[in-house]
Amino acid sequence: MNQDMRVAIVAESFLPQVNGVTNSVCHILDHLAAGGHEAIVLAPAGAPPAYAGFPVHPIPGLALPFYRSVSVGLLGGRIRGVLAAFKPDIVHLASPAVLGAAGATAAHRLGVPVVAVFQTDLAGFARRYGMGVAGRIIWSWLRRLHRRAARTLAPSRATLRELSARGIPRLALWGRGVDLERFHPSRRCERLRHRLAPGGEVVVGYAGRLAAEKQVHRLAAVAGLPGVRLAVVGAGPSEKGLRRLLPEAEFLGLRTGVDLARAVASFDVFVHTGSDETFCQAVQEALASGVPVVAPAAGGPLDLVRPEVNGLLYAPDDTSSLRAAVARLAGDAALRARMSRHARASVEGRAWPVLCEELLAHYRDILAIPAPPPAPPAPERRPDLAGGV
Questions:
Q1: 225 CB contacts (<8 Å, ≥6 apart)?
Q2: What percent of the chain has pLDDT over 70?
Q3: Are residues 160 and 190 both part of a single domain?
Q4: Given this model, what pLDDT does residue 386 score?
Q5: Is residue 64 scored above 90 in pLDDT?
Q6: If you ran DSSP here, which 8-state letter would residue 115 be given?
Q7: Domain check: are 155 and 223 in the same one?
Q8: What does the alpha-carbon distance between residue 171 and residue 175 come to, in Å, rounded to a whole number?
Q9: Distant-in-sequence, close-in-space partners of 132: CB < 8 Å, separation ≥ 6
Q10: Cα–Cα dist 229/314, whole Å
Q11: Lowest mean pLDDT: which of 13-17, 87-91, 384-388?
């Protein structure tokens, strides 16, 4: 099946919020536009009216209490009407939760197949914010949601195993692409490096959201290593506490686009601290920049970091293991140089157009399966939360 497709993307998070979900959706839309496909986006209110030439339909939303950079859609009352008017071939749920549940219900009633992309470990984030009891509720909700999908795409093998163990069916692996032009070793900036390490120290850097779920406080284990300067890129609710915890670190603030790529490429070692990553795009961007990575042996980084080749893995929640790994790389320039060469090579085949074509192949596989008849019309009632479509 090679004809153009009509794709409705229900995005739990979208512009102006900048995060992994938004980034993926934007790349998918760019690829659909380049391929001559038709698309619409349903996203939380506040989104721009259009992206890549495709209309964006706003849905009222709210911020999650434990992840306030993500505003999820609240009322799903108009979703069915938007989908019915567009007549999509397939509905794509991007990191579905509340708005995604409404999208799944609407698609089911219209007889349109659904592909769900699992991306955010909401249960893990809730646990990090001291809301562990909510994890069981979240998983129960996600099971009901994903059972309506013709296919759920997991970003890493670790996440695939977790979803399978949680009873989510019809799983397949689909990773994330990386912008190999933006994130490139040539972005390394000597002026920035001189600012960060005027004495020629080894620059050890982190880039990402500064929040509890990212466990950035683990960088304290690296602070004070001889010949090392610590740099932190990002912003978030934990920033004030981290500045107190890491007084010698250089905080570079939130950076995006080329500014982010320049900062990452200027590191000598990239450290990731969180153990709840379903994929970890920051690790992939560091590798594309030719920077060896130190990351926990958990979740998405297991698919990206090849120990002794492009980086090192440390035991999750073991800060002494983290410190030892960073100390080893910081003290061995030849090892860093060898890993740097392999870092870039390890992601050369993961450009976004390649990954987007893999996604379209999943769409076509699903569309080749005979569709069930539309669900009978539901009784008329007032719009409700999430499933009220």
A1: 204, 323, 326, 327, 330
A2: 88
A3: no
A4: 42
A5: no
A6: E
A7: no
A8: 13
A9: 126
A10: 20
A11: 384-388
Residue identified by tokens 């466990």 is 215
387 lies in a domain? no
Task: Quickly list DSSP for 229-275.
Answer: EEEEE--STTHHHHHHH-TTSEEEE---HHHHHHHHHT-SEEE---S
CATH code, domain with 225: 3.40.50.2000
Residue 203 near residue 267, CB atoms below 8 Å = yes
**H or E element, residue 146:** helix 134-146
Range among 65-69, 197-201, 210-214 with highest mean pLDDT value: 197-201
Smallest CA-to-CA distance from 231 within 309, 321, 291, 305 is with 291
Distance in angstroms between the alpha carbons of the first and the last residue of the chain: 31
Token output for 130: 């001291």
C-alpha angle with apex 174: 169 to 175, nearest 5 degrees?
A: 135
Give the three-state DSSP class for 136.
Answer: helix
Could you tell me if residue 56 is inside a domain?
A: yes
Per residue in 104-125, pLDDT tens?
999 999 999 999 999 988 777 6
**Residue with tokens 């594309």, as numbered in its chain:** 288
Say what the pLDDT of residue 133 is.
67
Residue 376 inside a domain? The answer is: no
| Joined tokens for residue 304 | 């990206």
Q: Residue 202 burial (CB < 10 Å; 0-12/13-18/19+)? A: buried
What is the domain range of residue 10?
Answer: 6-177+351-367
244-249-250 Cα angle (round to 5): 115
68-91: per-residue pLDDT in tens? 444 444 455 689 999 999 999 999
328-330-336 Cα angle (round to 5): 90
Residue entry with tokens 């153990």: 275
Q: Give residue 389's pLDDT.
A: 33
Q: Cis check for the bond before 16: say yes or no (omega within 30 of 0).
A: yes
CA distances from 382 to 10, 76, 97, 108, 359 (A): 21, 11, 21, 19, 36
